[in-house]
Amino acid sequence: MEYSYHSICRWTxxxxxxxxxxxxxxxxxxxxxxxxxxxxxxxxxxxxxxxxENIILGVEFHYDTEINEENVDEVVDIMKExxxxxxxxxxxxxxxFAYGGIASLDPEERKKAEEFGIKTVDITYEKMESVFxxxxxxxxxxxxxxxxxxxxxxxxxxxxxxLKESIANLCKYEEKKGGKLYFAIEPKPNExxxxxxxxxxxSAILLWKRLKEEYGIKIEKKGVNKEFGHSEMIGxxxxxxxxxxxxxxxxxxxxxxxxxxxxxxILGGPGKFDIDHGARINGMNIVIAKLxxxxxxxxxxxxxxxxxxxxxxxxxxxxxxxxxxxxEACEIVSKKxxxxxxxxxxxxxxxxxxEDLIKELVADAFKxxxxxxx
Length: 374
Prior knowledge:
Helices cover 44% and strands 13% of the residues. With 374 residues, the chain is α/β, with parallel strands linked by helices. It has one domain: Divalent-metal-dependent TIM barrel enzymes (TIM Barrel). An 8-stranded parallel beta barrel has the order 1-2-3-4-6-8-9-10, surrounded by 4 helices. The chain has a two-stranded antiparallel ribbon with strand order 5-7. Strand 2, helix 2 and strand 3 form a beta-alpha-beta unit. The protein is globular, with a radius of gyration of 20 Å. The protein starts with a strand and ends with a helix.
């Protein structure tokens, strides 16, 4: 059986976004009623039975808001009971540090942020190694949510130097702990600052190259957590992002959510805030599925998504199921994509025929999705 690995994010299961929309639309998922143990139980009871047998499930956590020293033992026990694995862990530094984190020009904040990353590595190895899946060890993601600025100044370069040094030291520390984790930087153009260090996939790839050159960091298990929606937010092409990641051997994790603008159904796209729809069925995703299959990628595909602000708990669960099955449908039909035929058409400048082929695959994918979902 050919297995497919999907990881579900703890932060998806929240009571509501708040701000301009309700913060309590899903009351049973409020902080005082729904914890990370409940999250694992929900996956085991309401999501796992709805999926094909070849899908292996993992989960994704922020330290220390979702997984921490107080709850980790209980969470790991329930994960082992249900054969659910750790797909991703990330320091939730953005919850604590608002002035640059490990890139900060405030030496006290930078020191505390570095210590926070060390604690995340420690809890991963010392408490969670029993829920690593062999040969599919989790990804340790560094999100750039703290690494930002809002005023033009010449010391942005100093922030970048701080960032490189801190990541290098963290990687060296993890290597001593076991070197089993994959490290991925997750780029984003903005949030929670108007401008961010490491805004694009290319920025992340370049950073790892510099860490190898300047600090001797081994980069065989280092790379990018590609998030489709983050590229879409600034009008970049996540197909080409994929090509760059594959070419540099740096595709180690994926967040296959969407801003939504490229399927002609849901709204979103460049210039919009981070909408976090689930995976969509469209030509771009079918092509990406083909690219990663040809490259031999078979690691965790994460669903970093949000329920709609009007969804109740039941509908929010359906969103996650639909996201997983939508991507599975894209992967299934992408195997029918005849590269020789497409290359022949492209060589003859018959792009209209390529368009027709992709349209047919999209139509087939919707049929596959329907059969899996029903």
